[in-house]
Amino acid sequence: MTTLVRYLWLLIATIALPAWVHWPYVVGEIDLASVEIMTSSRFLFELWLSTSFAFALVVLPATAMLRWRQRRRGKLPRDAWIAATATIAATLLALHANLTSYAPFYGNTWALWEPTFELFLPHARPLLAILALTIALETWLAQRSTRATPASLVSVTLRPGS
User: Fold this and answer.
1) CB-based contacts of 89: which residues, under 8 Å, 6+ apart?
2) Which of 58, 70, 111, 118 has its CB 3.0 to 4.6 Å from that of 90, i.e. a possible disulfide?
3) How far apart are CA 42 and CA 104, in angstroms?
4) Quick check: 88 and 134 in contact, CB under 8 A?
5) Maximum Cα–Cα distance for the chain, whole Å?
6) Residue 71: which residues within 8 A CB-CB, separation 6 or more?
7) Which stretch of DSSP H or E encloses residue 31?
8) Integer CA distances (angstroms), 91 to 36, 97, 106, in order
9) Neighbours of 99 (CB within 10 A)
C-alpha cells in the first residue's frame, strides 16, 4: 500500500470514531485551555493534527527504513508486513490520542490512567473493528503486491533472425 493510501485510511479510521463519540460533548462547549468555544472546524482540525502526528512519528520513519532496505537488498516478502505493523501501531496511537485528549470536557479531576479506562476502552468493539479492517486492508494489499503478474511468469527471449 502506498504511503498516501495509508495516510488517507488513517485519517478516515481515526477521525470518524472520536468525532462520533465526542461531538455532542465537545463542540459548542468552552475549551478551558484556550478559553474559547470549541467550533466544529477546530475540533476536526485537532483530530486531524493528532492523527498526522501519529502518522509522522510511526509510518513515515518505517516507510523510509523500508525504502532504504529495499535499495540495499531488494524487496523482501516481510517488508509488507513491517509496513502493516507500522500502520496498525499508528492507528492505535492516533485512536488513543483522539479519544482521550478531550477528557477535560468531561470534568477536570482525571487521574493519569483514567482517560484510557473511561474514554478509550469502553469503545473496544469499534476499535477492534477498525483494527480488523486495517489488518484486512494491509493483508489484501500485501498479497496483491507480492502476487506474480502473468507477464512475469512467461519469459520469452526473442533473438534477431530467429
Assistant:
1) 58
2) 58
3) 16
4) yes
5) 85
6) none
7) strand 30-31
8) 29, 10, 24
9) 24
Q: Which three cell numbers stand for residue 70?
A: 529495499
CA 91 to chain centre: 3
- Going residue by residue through the chain (162 aa), what tens digit of pLDDT does each one get? 577 888 888 889 889 999 998 998 889 888 877 778 989 999 999 999 999 998 999 888 988 898 898 888 888 878 878 888 888 888 999 999 998 888 888 877 788 888 888 888 898 899 999 999 988 888 887 777 666 444 444 444 555 665
Q: Which amino acid is at 149?
A: T
Separation of alpha carbons 99 and 102, rounded Å: 7
Q: Cα-flanking dihedrals φ and ψ of residue 37, to 5°?
A: -80, 135
pTM of the model: 0.77
DSSP 28: T
